[in-house]
């Protein structure tokens, strides 16, 4: 375990807070504060990612040793680890919120993986930092299970994401008012060790910009480019312009991926958008079940629905606008920033077309295919079809004799199924006609479709079942789900139940369809 090498560039290259304690405060002129994780009573390993452990050179024996749980609960450090919390701001639900920062996330350092890639390791729920404001710096088991599982599930789906190394129970209770209704309860606490090339967010740039700390902003921009976008060349002005454009493009591709798999982030504040285009902060996220572009899992956003599924690409664009505004002091004119934002639009259109062609099994996107997709989404919404099952079933449609048989298990409501059958058959006929003019042989088409339309996703109720088991002391359900979600595109004999549509009991149940921000 001691062989892991750390090279803590963020800490070394960027200005830090002269104070090193966890007293809540405004931290100016600095991007990080040295702060130790607060030790916990009884660390116990609940789950771990085989792939991430392998990348970091941890053997199964290492992982199972008590020292591993101690390190990733924040009770001990490996040589080379230098804990710190970072300083960022953000727009929350459309409003500038000022300094936020890592209030419960503590970075341990940047480890060099077996592949040569660098991984910033970060504990979420490791205790108070100067950025905790009035909160406790901790995380509950339920939100930590969800973060651990979804980080790895998204990776296996091929969606850019921060990763998770392990999940450790703290043996301590955390007080949470889950529905903000005046009924706080003690819940088991946990810590996830996340891993990513960097956790830099849009909000890291917004905060120094809002404070007029231009030199700090410039340092952060140039550090980000040098460390994380080394392929960009040219003079400083050109590199900065290209960098912003690439951030826009990566964000566009990420949005197309979320829309492809039916992921709703739930809290797309600018402090939760990664500068590397990774999915970051698995809070009150959810997966689309009965197809509804207006759905959001986040109970805090129930009325405004700012972060609803169908709105995500537009919100990302709005967030990039805030980033552009923050960066504007570094540009002689607005033109490069506007060009970058245009790159978002163009990249999103291109990525969306590729997603449409992939999900419908078309050799190439052609004029009219977006309307075909939109019509299918309308049919799924009106008929109450499960998104994952609905798309997966399309691969089994025979274009010479289209029928609804492959969709038999995808409906949530019998009456709506009956009512919408004629419209569905019309759509199938239109789809079959489109396939008739497409060069892909049927077998290849089906295989391609199954490679982009997952069979297994982290359905909200599945995560909730694993959480409830873990809360009862049996963490095995977490590992079982992770194992399933390692191969989301393969039919896994014996595991059909995990692909089934959400059971009725889970429809309106907290944790299954409604998630609280309280975590
Ligand atoms: N229990 C807590 N203690 C201290 N700070 C917290 C706590 N929960 C959230 N915060 C802080 O509130 C802000 C917004 O929280 P948000 O829910 O977006 O993030 P998060 O889930 O804690 O973390 P991350 O974005 O790192 O995944 C962040 O600054 C976060 O650190
Ligand atoms: Mg956050």
UniProtKB/TrEMBL annotation:
<dbReference type="GO" id="GO:0005524">
    <property type="term" value="F:ATP binding"/>
</dbReference>
<feature type="binding site">
    <location>
        <position position="281"/>
    </location>
    <ligand>
        <name>Mg(2+)</name>
    </ligand>
</feature>
<feature type="binding site">
    <location>
        <position position="137"/>
    </location>
    <ligand>
        <name>ATP</name>
    </ligand>
</feature>
<keyword id="KW-0067">ATP-binding</keyword>
<dbReference type="InterPro" id="IPR003846">
    <property type="entry name" value="SelO"/>
</dbReference>
<keyword id="KW-0547">Nucleotide-binding</keyword>
<feature type="binding site">
    <location>
        <position position="124"/>
    </location>
    <ligand>
        <name>ATP</name>
    </ligand>
</feature>
<feature type="binding site">
    <location>
        <position position="281"/>
    </location>
    <ligand>
        <name>ATP</name>
    </ligand>
</feature>
<feature type="binding site">
    <location>
        <position position="201"/>
    </location>
    <ligand>
        <name>ATP</name>
    </ligand>
</feature>
<keyword id="KW-0808">Transferase</keyword>
<dbReference type="GO" id="GO:0070733">
    <property type="term" value="F:AMPylase activity"/>
</dbReference>
<feature type="binding site">
    <location>
        <position position="136"/>
    </location>
    <ligand>
        <name>ATP</name>
    </ligand>
</feature>
<keyword id="KW-0464">Manganese</keyword>
<protein>
    <recommendedName>
        <fullName>Protein nucleotidyltransferase YdiU</fullName>
        <ecNumber>2.7.7.-</ecNumber>
        <ecNumber>2.7.7.108</ecNumber>
    </recommendedName>
</protein>
<feature type="binding site">
    <location>
        <position position="104"/>
    </location>
    <ligand>
        <name>ATP</name>
    </ligand>
</feature>
<dbReference type="GO" id="GO:0000287">
    <property type="term" value="F:magnesium ion binding"/>
</dbReference>
<dbReference type="GO" id="GO:0030145">
    <property type="term" value="F:manganese ion binding"/>
</dbReference>
<keyword id="KW-0460">Magnesium</keyword>
<keyword id="KW-0479">Metal-binding</keyword>
<feature type="binding site">
    <location>
        <position position="103"/>
    </location>
    <ligand>
        <name>ATP</name>
    </ligand>
</feature>
<feature type="binding site">
    <location>
        <position position="194"/>
    </location>
    <ligand>
        <name>ATP</name>
    </ligand>
</feature>
<feature type="active site" description="Proton acceptor">
    <location>
        <position position="271"/>
    </location>
</feature>
<comment type="similarity">
    <text>Belongs to the SELO family.</text>
</comment>
<comment type="function">
    <text>Nucleotidyltransferase involved in the post-translational modification of proteins. It can catalyze the addition of adenosine monophosphate (AMP) or uridine monophosphate (UMP) to a protein, resulting in modifications known as AMPylation and UMPylation.</text>
</comment>
<feature type="binding site">
    <location>
        <position position="272"/>
    </location>
    <ligand>
        <name>Mg(2+)</name>
    </ligand>
</feature>
<keyword id="KW-0548">Nucleotidyltransferase</keyword>
<feature type="binding site">
    <location>
        <position position="101"/>
    </location>
    <ligand>
        <name>ATP</name>
    </ligand>
</feature>
<dbReference type="Pfam" id="PF02696">
    <property type="entry name" value="SelO"/>
</dbReference>
